[in-house]
Amino acid sequence: MTEVEKYRGKSRAQAIGEAGLFGMLYTLTAPVRRVVDVAVPLFRPFAWKSVGALGAASRAGWWVPYFRLIPSLPRPFRFRTNPVLGPWPEWSRPVPEGLRSYPGYLSDPSAEDAAFAAKPLRDFLDHEYPEIGEWIRRGIWRSGFFVKPRLQRALRAIFEASQLQPQRAEKPPAPDALTAEIKDLGLQLRLSAVGVAAYDPKYRFKEFFEDEAGHDRVIVCILEENYGAQQTAPSVRSDRATLSTYADIMTRQVKIAERLHRYGYRAYLHDVDGQALTIPYAVAAGLGQLGLNGQLLTPYAGSRCRIMLISTDAPLVPDSPVDYGVPKICDNCRACVRRCPAKALSAKRAFYRGVWKAKLNTARCVPVLANNHDCDICTTVCPVQRYGLPAIYDEFERTGSILGKGTDDLEGYDFGGRHYGPGQRPELLKEYFELPVLSQLSRPEPDTEQAASSSIEPAR
Ligand code: SF4
Ligand code: SF4
């Protein structure tokens, strides 16, 4: 049994067991947490003020005394919310005939360039809509409580590694040998997958252009998130697993930067807030394809993973996009579109900034994110996340259908203390989406599945 298979098809009890002591405490304290869930909104004005102060301290820099004062247990005794998973097996499975489409995603490079020239991308939460960022983050204090010290240590380490002007200590190997060495190192560090893409300023947020001057390669690192925790989304446990995965991936990335420094190359490590779009790089590096949920679908874990980038001036050999059959799987599935409680997802693809994709309705998604531990239902109900592509291919070859589609096992979720099976969605009132903080966002009507069926794919 491979490392990846070990984490498939676990029952909820097994998954919680894997989280160790913390998992047991989590289960035993369920009734208390339910009371807290009800009581916290009553004290929100108070919580908002205290978290706001800590949040402001956090933004002032990770060296502020607040974080230094938080003690941490010796490594073997620290609580973990996710087990350390191993690297994914190399992908070699051919895509079934009926699911083949195109490598990566379709794009119009001239339209992409024109969009970049007209308006470079900006950091959504910190710079474009800071009030919305503040609003979303106010809810993560419970998820971040145990993880924050580890997250802060990792942030400090990547900040220091990014500032380093290395002196060459060893003669570097040839580009292809260096690329293989870096990928091997990533797998030894137990990252799930590592790829290389060419640097592209189009994906960089405008606020951070200067930091990567002279860099022409990007190392894409992916780390799988805990399987059991993700299946409980939206929940504190799932959100905590996300933050914990970020801490792990950043810590491991520092080792990759140290290897590049040894050969005299610079490395700029992106942090948890993100300084560029990660998905285009991951697609370019052949690590997955874009799903209708707007996320990267990786072959073994769908979008249940975190992606982090290291840009460098090392002459690494870039990988190529791969066809995993994701576009056709999505066309046959649409579970995320049907199940999103906010009707924020569409199955209708169009060119957006030169990329052929379905566009998320941000104004509908953001209130759900802010009020429900980062939501993530569109990841949880995705069959690629739940079963992995090999099982989906097997089912498609046998029956011509998508594994789990329409079943409560895949599509059911708990939201606001109630279970919603297939065909049921929470009724969110109009007022839910009309808060003043959202007024800056455009608010197009949600697309329907009927509209989706009329979408016409561009000629290739
Ligand atoms: S995070 Fe939640 S609200 Fe946002 S698109 Fe996904 S399912 Fe919908
Ligand atoms: S849920 Fe279905 S449609 Fe949505 S991203 Fe996953 S495979 Fe694609």
Describe this structure in words.
The chain has helices spanning 3-6, 12-18, 20-28, 30-39, 44-59, 65-68, 109-118, 124-128, 130-137, 141-144, 148-163, 175-188, 227-230, 236-262, 279-284, 326-333, 335-339, 362-371, 377-380, 383-387, 389-399, 408-411, 449-452; strands at 193-198, 217-224, 267-269, 289-290, 296-297, 305-312, 349-352, 355-358, 413-415, 418-420. It has 460 residues and is of the alpha+beta class. The chain folds into 2 domains: 3-312, no CATH class; 331-452, no CATH class. The strands form 4 sheets. A 4-stranded antiparallel sheet has the order 1-2-6-3. A hairpin with a 2-residue loop joins strand 9 (413-415) and strand 10. The longest helix has 27 residues, at 236-262. The two termini are 40 Å apart. 41% of the residues are buried. The structure holds iron/sulfur cluster (SF4) (2 copies).
Q: Order of strands across the biggest sheet?
A: 1-2-6-3
- What ligand molecules are bound, each kind once? iron/sulfur cluster
Tell me about the largest β-sheet: 4 strands, antiparallel
Strand runs, count: 10
Structural class, judged by helices and strands?
alpha+beta
- What share of the residues lie within helices? 40-55%
- Given as residue ranges, the uncertain stretches (5+ residues, pLDDT < 50) are 1-19, 44-52, 57-71, 443-456
- Tally of separate domains: 2
Share of β-strand residues: 5-15%
On the 0-100 scale, what is the average pLDDT? Answer: 81
Radius of gyration: 22 Å
Oligomer class: single chain
Shape: globular
Number of helices: 23
Distance between the termini: 40 Å
